[in-house]
């Protein structure tokens, strides 16, 4: 094979396939301490460890939610946290058939000489870190590369750097038993139309898969986490069916069938938008050799956060709001979402923040 | 899109899809004058235009053969030839649902500084030539790139040059209404095992699809003509099921689902081997988002040539032989071939020629 041989091959393939189980998807709960601070600030909650732990416990103990999830991405701190009755979060997730994942990148830094384009860091000592995370119970990882659309962006340098960074991260993960989620996010910021987004997405994904091939990555043991193909944030919105058509076509042109599942990021979309778009993709009658699912952060948690407000007495209501989004997205992976989810407060609210920094 | 969508886009997509119809495949009858001379020499037939015309007429008027074929690749001379009662070959083919194609490359030349590696020429005035061929009735084209396996081959240079040549050829064809068949043949010559062939095939195909993306080629309006993944010619043979597994895995890892069909070259395989291998691939119970069919030259014509031997009195026998191979391969595209189509020993004869030069 052009891919490397690893003792973890069978396990990687099985885990990647499991994450793509129809009816399930990923909860991205890997907000760094800084980022979760912004979320907590928006609901007037203090950014201390006990609150961060309480939020994640709220999510993971929501009755009926875990069957909608095949995985949860965690931040390092959370990987080692426990529920209030002392059960490690990873054990709680595993016994409910939810694979724990871990964010392993160390954020973005600017590429000198470009117009504020970035590359992602985190390769130093990554192999050792992955080993430790595997020992702690993680079975997949995530690394976010970021590109933007502009007059001259993304540049060939930005595309190449980010693609090859993703590839190097991916093979190091596989050497250490973690399924790498490959995330080349093209930001929605801008006034470009959907055709431009499609063109850039196709170009970026083609570069990613060339890089993965060069680095001998086992595609059957990876997942892709791309942006949906949409108009820019400053352009007129289009229907979910249009987003579905452009997105799936871009993927058909670039993502090999060996990749078992594609789990979309939600970017700045509202909870309801993200669900409807995913649903439209799964209703589309066309060649889709990979399953299409979700890996949502804000688009799964927004109304839950607002309902919770950091208050113990709101936990039950907040959990109900979380379950509503989990179920809606679970149905969307099957193309059966009827758009009738009881909209929690803020479910239709755009989550776009210009030039969003994680 | 990142793909070039010119005035021929819809037609290209339709033609490519038609050529990939399950149950049909391509007859590669594009032997150059020099190459057909070698074939004729082997059956003691003089290499003159009338004989070349007679052979092709034999093939194109075989009763019952047309339904098994979606296309025929022609050499330039043949594109302008007629049947003995004056009907242009292209008209005869089109009237019977068989699309005429044209070989447009001008053979290989050595890459200086390499160990006998080559690149393919033919880009000069290719656009103008394609326009002429389109007017003459051609609707698809073929360009053969050649790579070999050795201690240090294929080199990065050879892979890049051949991939880029294919991409440039492909886009020029599309600009002029011809569906490009992309053919990156990795020769069987050598003592390597099937895993080596798989690794090289995957690396080459990954480079080819990156190049096609770079050149804005519309994948839905292309076809792929790859080698099957097999052990080297000096290595022990393996079962068709093994060839099928390695070949389909390699394709799943590299060929985007947007490509409608994959038509295998037969290389030096015997008629029967080629059919059995194609059949095994179509029986394989794994998701294949493109149809798998044939584009055979020698593996469709070998026993027919022997049966004909240039004599008019052998016409019916030769045509019956040809029909047998057409039907066998048609069945193989549906995974329905049950083997032993010809009692003819010629069907099992290896067609391998070391260092084969077209």
Automatic annotation (TrEMBL), chain A:
Pathway(s): Carbohydrate degradation; glycolysis; D-glyceraldehyde 3-phosphate and glycerone phosphate from D-glucose: step 4/4
Residue stretches in coiled coil: none
Main location: cytoplasm
Catalytic reaction(s) noted: beta-D-fructose 1,6-bisphosphate = D-glyceraldehyde 3-phosphate + dihydroxyacetone phosphate
Organism domain of life: Eukaryota
Keyword Membrane: no
Gene3D superfamilies, alphabetized: Aldolase class I (3.20.20.70)
GO cellular component, one term: mitochondrion
CDD domains xrefs: FBP_aldolase_I_a (cd00948)
Protein name from the UniProt record: Fructose-bisphosphate aldolase
UniProtKB/TrEMBL annotation, chain B:
Keywords: Cytoplasm, Glutathionylation, Glycolysis, Lyase, S-nitrosylation, Schiff base
Catalytic reaction(s) noted: beta-D-fructose 1,6-bisphosphate = D-glyceraldehyde 3-phosphate + dihydroxyacetone phosphate
EC annotation from Swiss-Prot or TrEMBL: 4.1.2.13
InterPro entries, per database record: Aldolase_I_AS, Aldolase_TIM, FBA_I
GO BP annotation list: glycolytic process
Full protein name: Fructose-bisphosphate aldolase
Domain of life: Eukaryota
Pathway membership, UniProt: Carbohydrate degradation; glycolysis; D-glyceraldehyde 3-phosphate and glycerone phosphate from D-glucose: step 4/4
Organism of provenance: Arabidopsis lyrata subsp. lyrata (Lyre-leaved rock-cress)
The family this protein is said to belong to: Belongs to the class I fructose-bisphosphate aldolase family.
GO cellular component, one term: cytosol
Subcellular location: Cytoplasm, Cytosol
GO molecular function annotation: fructose-bisphosphate aldolase activity; mRNA binding
